[in-house]
Design a protein that fits this description.
Layout lengths: L2 H7 L23 E3 L2 E2 L11 H13 L4 E5 L2 H8 L8 E5 L4 H9 L7 E5 L4 H9 L4 E5 L11 H10 L3 E5 L4 H4 L9 E5 L13 E5 L2 H14 L5 H12 L1 H19 L5 E5 L9 H7 L7 E6 L3 H8 L6 E2 L9 E3 L11 H6 L6 E5 L5 H13 L2
Parallel strand pairs: 4-5, 4-6, 6-7, 7-8, 12-13
Antiparallel strand pairs: 1-2, 3-9, 8-9, 10-11, 11-14, 13-14
This protein binds pyridoxal-5'-phosphate.
């Protein structure tokens, strides 16, 4: 079945009681047992499992072309679950170009558990090979990356990592399962912040993990059930509903972002437009190979000038709302040092490809001309 069809149908089984097409929100903490230890249905207690969450988890696995899906209370909770595979004495490598919250988690939480974390430039396969030579349990990548839209070669990276016996986890939040499926490039673990494109309407905080390997799935399920960082029934339902329209939303996001990126190239107030769809983007060819049907809805603008100019631009748009987050139908603008990449110091931000004059745009599904006009007008204020 084609992926676009799966997005509309995944996880949908006719409701056994009334035949409702929409998966019911089973707002239930517990479920009756017929005899001791034998619940009426499949579920006993809402932390271990819930029918609405289960429908979402089935859908997530299907659209990410994996076997096992797990839904969490947030993207960060999903990252925490992935890191449950790490134990004392393990070493982990992470790409420089990573979401600030993940960076903060890896640097401040993992060392306390006896896990050492190092950062590497994963666009350089030689550097990556050298750093994996010393052995590691996990490699964390993100492509396209937040906010620099750095593209990583998943196929080549997984080959190197697997040669060293290292598992690869990929944050696929920016691309979404509609544009890219990391598992099909050899990645072992896929993670999403469902808060972004999967939810798609800026009204829910949630996350997910999808894997193919049974042993990995058991570790992640165990962590989910024991720590209880689960997506609630209503939040699960919102993400499930978001997935139904992922295809048409992503098509609109991609189209708008491409159009805006192309028209902003060469603007006198702009030093560089970072968008993988532009032929001069260093990851363009790779992105064209890895991302089907489009280059995503995120683009970053490096403004001529410094921090002050970038802040002024971010504060001057009207249609683009100044807010943390991304991936909703409405356009947002953000200044990473004050939002997604606040936990990083300026050096780490530079290594992540985010200089102080970079502003990030989450291009929504509004009319592209209106959005472009808003940007051009805001640039006049810089
Ligand atoms: C937002 C985000 C996260 C964290 O997700 P939350 O749902 O906010 O916890 C992780 N990775 C990326 C790329 C993100 O944009």
């Amino acid at each position: 079945m084609n992926k676009a069809t799966k997005m509309v149908h995944a996880g949908l089984e006719p409701d056994p009681v009334f035949g409702a097409l929409s998966v019911p929100i089973y707002q239930a903490a517990t479920f009756e047992q017929e005899t001791v230890g034998h619940p009426v249905g499949k579920w006993a207690y809402g932390r271990g499992g819930n029918p609405t969450r289960h429908a979402l988890e089935v859908a997530l696995a299907e659209i990410e072309l994996g076997r096992y899906g797990y839904a969490f209370a947030s993207g960060m909770a999903a990252i925490d679950a992935v890191c449950a595979i790490l134990t004392q004495g393990d070493r982990m490598i992470c790409t420089h170009a990573v979401y600030g919250g993940a960076y903060e988690y890896f640097r401040t939480i993992l060392p306390g558990r006896g896990v050492s974390v190092e950062f590497a430039d994963c666009t350089s396969l030689d550097e990556l090979d050298a750093s994996l030579q010393q052995g590691a349990r996990l490699l964390w990548i993100e492509t396209p990356s937040n906010p620099a839209l750095t593209i990583l070669d998943m196929d080549a990276i997984c080959q190197i990592a697997h040669r060293h016996g290292v598992l690869v986890a990929a944050d696929n939040t920016f691309a979404t399962p509609y544009l890219q499926n990391p598992l099909s490039f050899g990645v072992d673990i896929v993670m999403h912040s469902c808060t972004k494109y999967l939810g798609g309407h800026s009204d829910v905080i949630a996350g997910c993990v999808v894997v193919n390997d049974r042993a990995l799935s058991q570790t992640i399920f165990h962590h989910q059930a024991v720590t209880g960082n689960v997506a609630g029934p209503f939040d699960s339902w919102l993400v499930l509903r978001g997935i139904r329209t992922l295809k048409v939303r992503m098509q609109a996001h991609c189209q708008n972002a491409m159009q805006i990126a192309q028209k902003l190239v060469g603007h006198p107030k702009i030093e560089r437009v970072l968008y993988p769809g532009l032929p001069d983007h260093p990851g363009h060819e790779l992105a064209a190979r890895q991302m089907q049907d489009g280059f995503g809805g995120m683009l970053s603008i490096v403004i001529k000038g410094a921090e002050a100019e970038a802040r002024r631009f971010a504060e001057s748009t009207e249609l683009f709302t100044l807010a943390v987050s991304l991936g909703g139908v409405e356009s947002l603008i953000g200044y990473p040092p004050a939002s997604s990449h606040r936990p990083m110091n300026p050096e780490a931000r530079l290594a992540a490809g985010a200089p102080p004059n970079l502003v990030r745009l989450s291009v929504g599904i509004e009319d592209a001309d209106d959005l472009l006009e808003d940007i051009i007008h805001a640039l006049e204020a810089v």
